[in-house]
Amino acid sequence: MTVTSQISDQLKTWRRDFHTFAEIGWTEFRTTSAIISVLRDLGWDTVYGPKLHAAGSRLGVPSAEVLAAERKRAVDQGADPGLVEAMGDGFTGVLGVLESGRPGPAVCFRFDIDSNDLVECSEASHRPFAEGFASINAGAMHGCGHDGHAAIGLGLATTLAERRDELTGTVKIIFQPAEEGVRGAHSIVAAGWFDDVDLFVATHLMADGERGAIVTGADGYLASTKFDVTFTGLGSHAGGDPEKGKNALLAAASAALNLHAIPRHSEGASRINVGTFQAGEGRNVVPRTATIRVETRGLNSEINDFMFARAQDIVAGAARMYDLDHELTVVGRADREDPSPELLPYIRDSFSGVQGVSTISDTSGIGGSEDATAMMKRVKECGGLATYVQIGMATSWGHHTERFDVDEDMLAVGVEAETKVALGAGEFLAGLGR
User: Fold this and answer.
1) Structure pTM?
2) 159, 161, 166, 169: CA torsion to nearest 10
3) Terminus of the chain with fewer CB atoms < 10 Å: N or C?
4) What integer is the mean pLDDT of 249-259?
5) What per-residue confidence (pLDDT) applies to 208?
6) Are 262 and 272 in contact (CB under 8 A)?
């Protein structure tokens, strides 16, 4: 089996469309609308809007004002108004379901669809800009490859619809919102969509490596907690009556310095970073508010929990020191979850022989964080197998940079191999006695 040139061209078209109309987490209204339309045309059932999510489990959702503006923009840029309305206050993403009508396993694939908070490069040396498909949405850019992931997911949906008579059981494809900041997976998991999954595969294109290098079971993703802290003090004239003020900037500064002083953990990797700091209104005003955005990470959930617990103590102490209030809000989280080792040989076989694949390995030890681990964890808790696949690209710029670009030839690699995963899953699981 090989992916036809027609599908390869369509993958490129989809990817460039998503890239042009980049949307950040929980605002992927146009992206979701476009995906739903394609899935429906292919004969897939679709689940979207509040039904897809457990509302109380969503993290880091933008304000109502931001969501309203993004909904309007999506419609102005061609999204189906009815679909956008059905997504309400940021209930973006979609689950595609294809029933074979024959007994067999439930196989699920996950592709994230959100962009980064980036301003894209506007120089002729940057291919998306030079070829006219750079993001037109200010402050949003696909700098991590999720535009390519969404295209792979639609390509997979296309090939499986064409070969439906060869399938057994059920295939699900999750087009997940809000992966950046590890926010979007948890509410979908909490809604129960993974409780019946027998085999789960998440996929990511990887930049700045060997072209066609496949990792069948990416591991080493760090547990992480993302949180925002707002300090609220009291403003006053910095010259006339400074003693009446309560300086929120100093509290935030104290917290920032001492957060970075948390000792590293002896039992494994630990991380902390204060990424942004906003405070003050003018040079002659005692600052009444300050906000910091912070993340902790750990080799496992226990180490991350240690880092986050110490961080909470430090933040509270800084607020007490300057006699003001603070509010800490968790806006994202991820656990450590490694792939199922018994699944990896099957993934290796599925990628073997696919045109464009150069090497295949089983581990990566990447060191970032991913909320697909929440999906993996739930599948394994319910008795299924799960893994995280990486597809290597030889690109000049790495992830989360303003010059990031996707090697579009690698999109077909993901479609072809994962079509094989879906078609052979029943026989593979039966061979394991499952």
Assistant:
1) 0.94
2) 120
3) N
4) 98
5) 84
6) yes
